[in-house]
Description:
Layout (H helix, E strand, L loop, with lengths): L11 H11 L3 E2 L5 H13 L5 H18 L10 H9 L15 H14 L5 H11 L3 H12 L11 H25 L25 E6 L9 E5 L5 E3 L14 E4 L12 E6 L4 E7 L8 H6 L2 H8 L4 E2 L21
Parallel strand pairs: 2-7, 7-8
Antiparallel strand pairs: 1-4, 2-3, 3-4, 5-6, 6-7
Helix pairs in contact: 2-3, 3-5, 3-8, 5-6, 5-8, 7-8
Amino acid sequence: MTASSTIRLMTPEEIAVNAGARAAPLRLPEPGLFIERSMRLRQLAEGHAMRDYLLFVAELARHQHERLKQPRPLKLPDEMALGAAMAGGQPPLDAQLYKRDPVWREELRALLGALAGSAIPEAARTLVKQLAEADDAYLEQQASALLAGGASGLDPAAAPLIAAALQLHWTRLVQQLQARFERGDHTETLAPFGLIDDPTVCPCCGSRPVASITRVGAEQSGLRFLACSLCGTQWHYVRIKCAHCQGTKGISFQALVDEDDRKSEVVQAECCETCGHYLKQVHMEKDLQVEPLADDLATLTLDLLIGELGVVRHGFNPMLVLGEADPPPDPGGQ
């Protein structure tokens, strides 16, 4: 009589966890971040009800790309600050704690100047002009409100332009800090970026994700990454797990349905029954051109429909901040 053995098959969740342990946990922002976003927005704009706005954000992203190509050395955290962040399990460039360099306002004004010479809607041109004339105190107040995830006093109309400059600034910070480490021209011996205590926020800047993305290619195929709404970093996060409460129970998916009653397989909303939050998920295996911020922006209808179910959005897209708690302050400081 031979002994028998039972082979237990791993669940899809366990497979994802084990695969994630082998894959690189972080994907830092690449030089083509903004131009890829711009191209995707232009693609999505065709025949879209939000065509004009998607094209405006695409033009904004194009200018972000052009600015990113221009060298602008920034002051970076020293070894002591990096060590403290690492010891505390915190992001080294926390958007709400790291001292904001006033140079971001120069980036903003450069972007505004470039937009003023572009073909943009008249309403956007008026906003660009008003923001170009705004004083520093107003710009800093708006930046603080936006980096806090859309806090009281944020002007939703100005938010995309403020966000564009801040995205550009924090993307530079991440790229330059990583480049300094790779060059070995500083005293730190450990990589500046790694996973932190809170897996639901960006390990580089501490910002909320705009959406998540399931990737294709090599060891990352099928893995899910959360995509930062600020610096563009992507970090591994297990699939079928709420990005708000980190629970795995009561997870369901919602998607838009076309005229033939077919559900979209490109963009879905992962909803958590436990905490009542959702985060969109875009799938590269269904469309290689997906870009988290662009595809999130172009599926506003899905947000509206899910909102009717009483589920709260966890992702933050600074290119479309809906509503405001209080009137924003006067741009002129009056």
